[in-house]
Amino acid sequence: MKALILIGGYGTRLRPLTLTVPKPLVDFGDKPILAHQIHALAEAGVKEIILAVNNQPPELMASLKGFEDIYNVKIIISIENEPLGTAGPLRLAKEMILKDNESGMFFVFNSDVICDYPLDKFIEFHKQHGKEGTILTTVVEDPSKYGVIVHQEDGKIDRFVEKPLVFVGNKINAGLYLLNVSVIDRIELRPTSIEREVFPQMASEGELYQMTLNGYWMDIGQPKDYLIGQKLFLQSQRDRETGVLAKGSLIVGDVMIHPSAQVDPTAQLGPNVVIGADCVIGAGTRIYDSTILARTVVHGYSLIQGSIIGWQNTIGKWSRIQGLTVTAEDVQLKDETFLNGTMILPHKAIAASYPNAGTIV
Ligand code: GDD
Ligand code: MG
C-alpha cells in the first residue's frame, strides 16, 4: 500500500509556532503531527509515503530519514513548482503512486488532521463496496468551515459540498481518503481542488462512499483547535489505557509528561496538560488546559491556563499566562509577567505585561 500526504501552505493559522517549525513537525501529544500519521499508515501496512509539498522546509527534509528508520517506511517527496491545490498534487505524483502499486489504491491524508486512525476497517469497507473512493467522515457542531457530506445508509455519498454557505448537514469530510488509482485520471495537471471539482463529480456518478469515524477527530491547524485536539488525544489515551498518562497526587485529570522533563513535586498539573521533552517545571507552578513544548523552563509559582508555550522558552517566576496566549520558539519572559491572549513572535525577550487580548509582540 501507498499513501500521499498533502502538505501545502505555510501554516499561517498556527503562527507564531510555525514561524520557526513547519506545521507537520509541530509536536502534538508525544510526537510531531506528521509522525502520528506515518505511524498509523505504517501500522496499516503502508510501505511508501509520498509527501506532496509546494515548498521544502529544510527542517522537514532533515527529519525524514529519522521517520523512515523509526517507522520502517520509505518516504519520497513530490514537489510542486506552483501550489496545485488538493487534487493537482495527486496528478503530479501519478508515476510515484502507480509504480509497483499492486493494491491498485492509495491513501490520501490532509496533513493537519489528527484522529484514532481506523485504517484497517477503512481498507475493508473500501474493498467491500468496490467503488472508486471512500472518505472518512465525522460529525461537528459547526460544519461551515469543512466539506459537508450527505449520504445514504449504506455509505453511498449523494452530495459533497465544500464550505457550504447554507446548512446542508453536520457530517463532514475528515480529510482522509482511500482512492483507487483510477481517480488520478479524473484530475488535470493544474491547480485544482479535490473537494470542489473531483468529489462532487464522483458522488454524482455513485463512485464515492463514506465511512464514519468512531472516536476523536480534530483539524489542529489553529491554536484553539490544537488545544481541543490535545484534550481529545489525552482522553483517548485514557480510554485506551495506553499507560502513558502521568500519575501523582498533584496531577488532575489527563496529563502527559515527557520522560525527560523534570517536574517539581509541588507543581500542580492538569487537566489537559502536555509537557514536552526536557522541560523544567518549577515549584508551586499551576498549569491547566495548556501545552508546554520541548526545552522550556517554567520558574516557580507561575500560572498557565489555556495557552501554548513554545519551544525553549523561559517563563519567569510568579508569571500569569492565560486566554489562548501562544509563544513562539525561544521567548524569554521576566518574572511576574502577565499575558492574556498574547501572540509572541520568535526570539523575543519580554519585559512588560500584555493584559489586552489580541496583542502581537
Ligand atoms: N501539496 C499541497 N499543495 N497541499 C496543499 C495545497 C497545495 O497547493 N493546498 C492545501 N494543501 C493541503 C493542506 O496543507 C492540508 O493538509 C490539506 O491540503 C487541506 O487544506 P486546508 O487548507 O487545511 O483545507 P481546510 O482545512 O480548509 O479543508 C479541508 O480539510 C477539512 C478537514 O479538516 C477540506 O478537505 C475539507 O473538505 C475538510 O472538511
Ligand atoms: Mg485544514
TrEMBL record:
<comment type="pathway">
    <text>Nucleotide-sugar biosynthesis; GDP-alpha-D-mannose biosynthesis; GDP-alpha-D-mannose from alpha-D-mannose 1-phosphate (GTP route): step 1/1.</text>
</comment>
<dbReference type="GO" id="GO:0005525">
    <property type="term" value="F:GTP binding"/>
</dbReference>
<dbReference type="GO" id="GO:0009298">
    <property type="term" value="P:GDP-mannose biosynthetic process"/>
</dbReference>
<dbReference type="InterPro" id="IPR050486">
    <property type="entry name" value="Mannose-1P_guanyltransferase"/>
</dbReference>
<dbReference type="InterPro" id="IPR029044">
    <property type="entry name" value="Nucleotide-diphossugar_trans"/>
</dbReference>
<comment type="similarity">
    <text>Belongs to the transferase hexapeptide repeat family.</text>
</comment>
<protein>
    <recommendedName>
        <fullName>mannose-1-phosphate guanylyltransferase</fullName>
        <ecNumber>2.7.7.13</ecNumber>
    </recommendedName>
</protein>
<feature type="domain" description="Nucleotidyl transferase">
    <location>
        <begin position="2"/>
        <end position="230"/>
    </location>
</feature>
<keyword id="KW-0342">GTP-binding</keyword>
<keyword id="KW-0808">Transferase</keyword>
<keyword id="KW-0547">Nucleotide-binding</keyword>
<dbReference type="Pfam" id="PF25087">
    <property type="entry name" value="GMPPB_C"/>
</dbReference>
<dbReference type="InterPro" id="IPR056729">
    <property type="entry name" value="GMPPB_C"/>
</dbReference>
<dbReference type="Pfam" id="PF00483">
    <property type="entry name" value="NTP_transferase"/>
</dbReference>
<feature type="domain" description="Mannose-1-phosphate guanyltransferase C-terminal">
    <location>
        <begin position="251"/>
        <end position="358"/>
    </location>
</feature>
<dbReference type="InterPro" id="IPR045233">
    <property type="entry name" value="GMPPB_N"/>
</dbReference>
<dbReference type="GO" id="GO:0004475">
    <property type="term" value="F:mannose-1-phosphate guanylyltransferase (GTP) activity"/>
</dbReference>
<dbReference type="InterPro" id="IPR005835">
    <property type="entry name" value="NTP_transferase_dom"/>
</dbReference>
